[in-house]
Amino acid sequence: MWRMFYFFALLSGLVSCEKPHDNFNLASPDGKLSIGIELIDNKLNYRVHSGDMESIGISELEILPNASVAILKASESENDDTWDPVWGQQSSIRNNFKELQLDINIDGVGGKLLARAYNEGVAFRFVLDEGEKPKEANFKCTYNLHKGSNYFAPAGESEPLGPVDYKGLTDYLQENNSNKRNISVPLVVESPDRSYMALLESDLYASNGIDPMQLDIAGTEGKLLSVNNVQLNEKQWTSPWRVILFGKSAGDLVVNTVPINLATPSKLENTDWIKPGKTLWDWRVHGYTAPDGFEYGINTESYFRYIDFAAEKGIEYFLIDDSWYKEVTKGHFELSDKLDLKKVIDYAAEKEVDLMLYYDRRHGEYGDEELFPYYQSLGMKGIKYGFMGSNVYFTREAIQKSAASQLLIDFHDSPVPFTGIRRTYPNAITREYCHAQQDSRRAFTPESFIKMALINAITGPLDMNNGNFDLTGINSGLRQKGPRETNTYFSTVASEAARTLVIFSGLVCIPDAPEAYEAKADLFEFIQKMPVGKWDESQILHSQIGEYISTARRHDKEWFIGSVYNQQGGELNIELNFLETDTEYEVTYYEDTPETHCKTNPEAYQVRSGKVKKDDVIKAILAPGGGHCMWIRPANNGEDSDSQLLE
């Protein structure tokens, strides 16, 4: 997997036999980013420059509260290698950074501070040596940001926060007269010059006895504080990486490879069984009546229909959600009498469709030691795990145990973000670190989708359940688990198709009925042809938080492009400068029509074909709340360019 180009250590002359320096500077490989580390009053401080501009002013770093720090030794090294992920937004990732290692003494506790500078971001980590140390600690990092910045952050199963100014952050934390509310990661910072930063962490896997990072204000405008509460013992302890990403646009942060480069390399010797892909899902279809009069529910015949459609369309998985069991006791599932699970399993095997099963921890303590082997014994390929809680240790254990049983795992219901874990355990295929479609039977707006695509997605793959085609039926209240309030789900079918590409995931869960997709088979083609998780490269072509996003992904010589606009609608010029020279391409457009509107006419769309070449500019016209998709591949002579309008 690893292709090492070169690795060398540079002793930087920072060490003095008599007294080490208290001031250090580390530049990124291209020299455009730099970190300054300084000891002030026996406390560690840092600052970050991007070009000639100070992006983060002098700010504190701390691991043991109020402790005095002495720097004993310093060394610098550089790394430049390339590695291939099992699946992801890129098929090959360059890991190029410079690292400063400071050997330190913290009130008698030995350890190291590691600082890394990449071309696209910087990171810090503490390592404490074996030996006696306080039982409790706080990994604290402050950020002294520019005044006048705008801020954005995830908000659980609600629309993300932002844009807000510093006072808006304060008001958010004090909402309902409670000071216990924190800011979730990543915090995206839009600086006054319209450049972007993201504050988050990576490689929680390597840190024991720690809570997830939380952000808070720190008293004066522009100053923020991040904290992990830590339980220590006498063993060596490693903190997560504090990560600061930089981008010229918000979209740059979503495809930034620094967080996954910082993660612990894969712990799995064999990954052949890990297959990213698409899955049908039953939960949101209950109550849907097909054109032949059949009503979908939790029963064997419904599941046969999903499996038949998946087999016909080449969809890898079918996910069975809650209610396949009635009761859970330790070591035992009492199966539902609504369906014959054994028949469903056998039928899926016959049709060569893999199955995944849901588990709701609130229903009973089955016991994870037995849970994952039991799912494996049923022939399942994965588990959708609900209501685990924000527990780092428990989440890590579940990922490891599911891997031991060769199961993919999809975390739901406010999971730990665990940025970078897909490198360490590639079976961690996705998670609902977002407000999924119709979550809690609410719906969400195009604006909230675009926010999540440019904020929550920075932490890694998301399970958002995009891709509904029967928008009129869902909005009319014809589903048992549709939005509680009718006509509140604003989207278009072209936007729904685009969203399945825009949101990166190793498991793209499409939530509508087979008949809804078959009725728009020409539009469904975009989803069907999309090679989920097997991308060679990914680019965000246009991005403005809450307004629009346009994403391009390449597999081999084919490109898939998806764009989404807010309720204003608009135009995006898609420059095809990434295509190969002297090659003609066929393109299929899946798009809104002039009559399409997310509220009044959501199912109007058109599919048309044509030819394109490098440096062509496609004028994508998106309806209010609409979308636009393109499938581009090297040309085969003879395809016509007819356009067909459908509604």
TrEMBL record:
Alphabetized Pfam families for the sequence: GH97_C, GH97_N, Glyco_hydro_97
Glycosyl-hydrolase 97 C-terminal oligomerisation domain segment(s): 534-632
Protein's UniProt name: Alpha-glucosidase
Keywords, alphabetical: Calcium, Glycosidase, Hydrolase
A single GO molecular function term of this UniProt record: carbohydrate binding
Domain Glycosyl-hydrolase 97 catalytic: 284-432
Ranges of residues in domain Glycosyl-hydrolase 97 N-terminal: 26-265
Natural source organism: Arenibacter echinorum
UniProt cross-references to PANTHER family, sorted A to Z: GLUCAN 1,4-ALPHA-GLUCOSIDASE SUSB-RELATED (PTHR35803)
Cofactor(s) required for function per UniProt: Ca(2+)
Entries under InterPro entries matching the protein: Aldolase_TIM, GH, GH-type_carb-bd, GH97_C, GH97_catalytic, GH97_N, Glyco_hydro_b, Glycosyl_hydrolase_97
Keyword Cell inner membrane: no
Record note on quaternary structure: Monomer.
